[in-house]
Each structure stands twice: as structure tokens, then as C-alpha cells.
Amino acid sequence: MEYKIGIEPDRLGVLIGKKGEIKKKIEESTNTKLIVDSKSGIVTIEGENLTDLMTAQNIIKAINYGFSPEKAFKLLDPDYNLHIIDVYNFMKKRDENNLRRILGRIIGEKGKTRRILEETTNTYISIYRHYVAAIGLFDDILILDEAIRKLIKGLPHRVVYEYLYNARSMRKMGLRGW
To answer: Across the chain, where does the E strand assignment appear?
Structure first.
């Protein structure tokens, strides 16, 4: 079986790593073979097992969306998921100034909002181009996704932080409904 995936030119070096170490680690960890065409940016993943192919695909996608390989390798744990939000899908007005404003709200002053998002949801976040990508457990990603949607809609940070802290408290008690 094989699967092809496109990689941004500026992420190819990260995917391959020094002396091919990252590529090799992906191959060894997922029992797959990666064929990287650096001219086209296409990576072909070959393997016998669909689960291994999907895991390799998710690690490569995570690296492509700006994650470090160390964080992308969290996806080797089957409980961890990769979630990608295309901010453009939620914007009424698609222009660079509006995109910068929205991404600025998600990052926050000196990275404060991003840090709070990551800490309260136990996730890793990467903001790359017009995407917000997250790695984490399913329920944590659901909470994060809702918080990011609230920020994109323009809700005050205070309201979003309140939502996050309430959702985290309910999750610790084993409740849903956030």
C-alpha cells in the first residue's frame, strides 16, 4: 500500500532531518518507507499495514503544519490525534490584515493566549500560515477547538479563558458538557 502527501518546501528539511535522521526514525517507528521527491515536495509512504501508514501520514502532516519532529512523534501514541483548523474557513472577510488580527488573538501578547490554550487543554499548538494545528487527546482537542472558534469569532479573551478553566474543571471531575 502507498499514500502520497505534499510537503511545503520550507518543511522538507525538517522532515528529513540531519543526515536523514528524522525520516529514518519515522520509517523505523511506523514500519514504513518514505520516498521524498524534494523537487515536487511529494512524499510517498509505503507500507503493509494501514495503521502504520496513517501514523506516518499524521507525523508528516504535523511536521508540515509547523510542529517540531519531537512533538510530531507524540502521534506514535494511538491515543494522540492531529487536528487542523483552517482559519480561512471561519473568516467572513478573507484578507491578510484580518488573518493577522485573528492569529494575533490566538497567540496573544507575548504568546500568553497560546500558552494558556496549551496548558489548560494539555495539547501542543502550531500556528503556520492560515492554520492552527493541535496534537493531543481527543477530548482535549474538542475543548481547544471550541476555544479557538470563540477567539476567531472575536469573543473577549476573558470569556475564552473562563470557558477553558470551566471545561478543564469539568473534565477533571469526569463530566462532559463543555
So the answer is: 2-6, 32-37, 42-47, 80-86, 124-128, 131-137
Q: How far apart (Å, rounded) are the C-alpha atoms in residues 159 and 107?
A: 16
User: Residue with C-alpha cell 494558556?
Assistant: 116
| Per-block mean pLDDT, blocks of 10 residues, the chain (178 long) | 97 98 98 97 97 98 98 98 97 91 97 98 97 97 97 97 94 74
Q: pTM for the full model?
A: 0.94
Q: Which of 131, 135, 13, 148 is nearest to 65 (CA)?
A: 131
Cβ of 136: how many Cβ atoms within 10 Å?
22
Domains, the chain, ordered by start: 2-76 (3.30.1370.10), 81-172 (3.30.1370.10)
Position 172, amino acid: K
